[in-house]
Amino acid sequence: MLLEIGIALLKIIVVFALALLTVAYLTYIERKVIGHMQVRMGPMRVGPHGLLQPIADGLKLFMKEDIVPYEAYRFTFYFAPILTLVTALILFAVIPFDKHFAITRLNIGVMYILSIASVGVLGILLAGWASGSKYPILGGLRSAAQMLSYEIFLGFSIIGALMISGSLDLVKIVESQHVWNIVYQPVAFVIYIIAALGEINRVPFDLPEAETELVAGFHTEYSGMKFAYFFLAEYANMIIVCSMATILFLGGWRGPVLPGFVWFLIKLFALIYFFIWVRATFPRYRYDQFMKIGWKIMLPIVLANIVVTGVVMMMVQGG
Amino acid sequence: MNWANLFFDLFAVIVVILSVITITRRNAVHSAIALMMAFVGLAAIYVILGAELLAAIQVLVYAGGVMALMLFVIMSVKSDEQNQVKQTHAQTLIAAFVGVLFVVEIGVTVWMGFLYKNTGALAKSQLAAMGNTEALGTVLFTKFLFPFEVASVLLLAAMVGAIVLAKYKLER
User: Are A123 and A81 in contact (CB under 8 A)?
Assistant: First the structure.
């Protein structure tokens, strides 16, 4: 009993420490990659090639004065970033990095991630409202509309892969993929990536924080550690979304020669690199264009994808 | 087994406290936050009772979806006077009636629970063999297909109705 609890605690500590470290260094990777793509050097000052930059950033944010605007609703203003970060971090609990390495194995892993992520939206909504200022509330409302609608496409695009794998258990989904699901579900994969970009508010869909229109959107009034919470949550969500894509479409830890978790990390970071690449390449969409893409193009495609998958599966299996 | 009981009690107490907070706060947003946490606590109880799928749906639909809609409404009518709920005693009679009705309903449900112990659409052993999600899916699409479809059509009608009403007002 005690031993089990000890092992579980150790797993939690390892996963969370690694996750937070990765999240911190993602900011560095992002700045470096985009810097080189734009023929700049990126951060160079702190440490060799700016390697200590994330730590310096963290220290700076930690030491900053804790400002609460006069018009803000104090309790909610503090509550929102905590909610956002917690909902982003507890998603790591079910991600299987290797066949036997996950904090816990749920038989409804996919549902768990979708449901907790849907609560995460509320953090941003509340942050926008609690700031008691105009730009944040506009950003908050925008992000709520955006994340609620893109959650639908995200969920629907997963269904095709789930039908083929026949389980909601993330471990079983990976084990069922003798051929990666992306081979059977290329359309769903593309839609998933687009919906994921919308869901985690990244360029080209970073409308809730569009600098040119909304200053910084829902976190305009936030500074110091509370701002860092939002930042960490955003990058943690990026890792989660990419891990989900790896598990659902790219065969998770499966791969020859190298150990499982190495394959998992290779696939994960390839996807993260792609996300950063997208950020360096595309301009921001206009809000109405963004909604139109979602509801008028992506929704019919994913629905058709589900129907086609079902029909083909019926024919192949002879049911 | 003892641990499960302990956690059940713990979450039950948390949910009750949060529910009380929900109906006693004057600030609508604070009520909403408490309600959201109560929903999550309820989901935890479902997990302890072995209904993982129900727990996930509870969080997805109530703590995620319904709360987002409620917050949308609260934020849209944002002004301090409207967020502060005024208390009156004008509806005491109605409230008492609804309260009594609710207590009776809960009593009947609990009594039925004792009466029809161990009976349901699926036996417990079957459930354990198939897993929660599969069992629910199987029953939903065979035995209860008709009620399921009726419920879907009802929800679709409500959705279409809402869009038509909103559009009608917008276009005028």
Answer: yes
Angle CA B65–B49–A86, to nearest 5: 45
Q: Which residues on chain A are in Cβ contact (under 8 Å) with B78?
A: 129, 137
Q: Does A271 touch chain B (CB under 8 A)?
A: no
pLDDT of B74-126, one tens digit each? 777 655 555 555 667 778 888 899 999 999 999 998 888 777 766 665 556 66
Q: Residue A11 burial (CB < 10 Å; 0-12/13-18/19+)? A: middle
Give me the torsion for CA of B100, B106, B107, B112, rounded to 10°: 150
In chain A, which residues have their Cβ closer than 8 Å to the Cβ of B68?
Answer: 118, 121-122, 125, 144, 148
**DSSP character at residue B74:** H
* pLDDT at B102 (0 to 100): 92
pLDDT per residue as tens digits for the range B9-61? 888 999 999 999 888 887 777 888 888 889 888 888 888 877 788 888 888 88
Do A198 and A142 meet the contact criterion of CB atoms below 8 Å apart?
A: no
Contact B132/A at CB under 8 A: yes
ipTM for the predicted complex comes to 0.77
Is the CB of residue B95 less than 8 Å from the CB of residue A161?
no
B78 at A interface, C-beta within 8 A: yes
Q: Considering the domain B1-77, what is its CATH architecture?
A: Up-down Bundle (1.20)
Using CB atoms and an 8 Å cut-off, which of residues 66-95 of chain A contact chain B? Answer: 73, 75-76, 79
B25 CB near a chain A CB, below 8 Å?
Answer: no
